[in-house]
Amino acid sequence: EVLLRLLSQEYAYRQQRSFDYRLGQAKIPWDWTLTTFPFDRQPGVNKVQIMSLAQLDFIQRAENIVLIGNTGTGKSGIAVGILRQALIEGYRGRFYAAQDLLDELYTSLADRNTSKLIKKLSRYDLLVIDELGYLTLNKEQVNAFFKLMSERYGRKATIITTNLPYEAWYELFNRKDLVDALLDRLRHRCITINIDGPSLRAPVQT
User: Which of 24, 97, 135, 166 lies 20 to 30 Å from 145, alpha-carbon distance?
Assistant: First the structure.
C-alpha cells in the first residue's frame, strides 16, 4: 500500500509537471476555463454545444472551429476554455492573437525562417488564432498565413475567433483565390458558431 501510494504521488507529480509545461508553452493570456464562462449571461451561445466540443473529438478528427461574433460576446473565452481543456487532456496547443501571429510570420521572412516556423506551428494539436479582424496585412503575411492553414488542413485542429462574417474575409485578405480556397477547406472540415448576443463586458443589470 505504501509503494502504491508513492507511485500514485509520483505519477500525479509528473502529470502536473507535464501539464504546467504545456500550459507555459501555450502562452494563454487569461486564466479562463469553461466552468467559469457566464453561459447564463450569453443567450447567443449554446452551452450544450460548447461542452460537447470540450470533449475534444474535433481534435481527433482534425476539424476546425470558427467563432464569429461582435466584440465582447465571449468568443475568446470559449476558445481559451477549450484550449485549456485540451492541455489538461495531454494535447499540445498554442494561443496567438491574430496580429501577433501574422507579425511573427512576417518577421520570419526576413530571417528566412518561415518554413521552420510554419512547420513548428503545424505540429500543435490545437492552434487558437484570436481576433482575426480588420488588420493591416501585406502580401507576404497573407501568403504565409494561407500556407500555415494549408499545412494544418486535415492534419490538425484550429480555432479562429473573428468579428468578421465569412464574406468580409475577402476584403481583409484581398486575395479572392486564396480566400476561396481557405473557405472551401474551412467549410468542409469546420464547425462555425455565430454568436448573436450581448456584450459580456456590459454592466450586469440588477
Answer: 24
Q: Quick one: cell of 172?
A: 481583409
What is this structure's pTM?
0.89
Element (H, E) at 191: strand 190-195
Closest to 183 (Cα-Cα) out of 93, 66, 52:
66
∠ CA 196-34-88, rounded to 5°: 140
**Which one, of 142, 141, 149, lies nearest residue 118 by Cα?**
149
pLDDT in tens, 135-149: 888 889 999 999 999
CB atoms within 10 A of CB 195: 20
Is pLDDT at 181 greater than 70 in this prediction? yes
- Treating both helix axes as pointing N-terminal to C-terminal, what angle do 98-110 and 139-152 enclose, rounded to 10 degrees? 110
Q: Bridge-partner residues for 157, per DSSP? A: 126
Rounded to an integer, what is the distance from CA 112 to the centroid of its chain? 26
Rounded CA Rg of the chain: 18
Integer Cα distance of 4 and 62 in angstroms: 38
Nearest to 130 by CA among 102, 171, 169: 102
Residues 6 or more apart from 142 whose CB is under 8 A from it? 173, 174, 175, 178
Q: What is the pLDDT of residue 16?
A: 73
Q: How many CB atoms lie within 10 A of CB 61?
A: 11
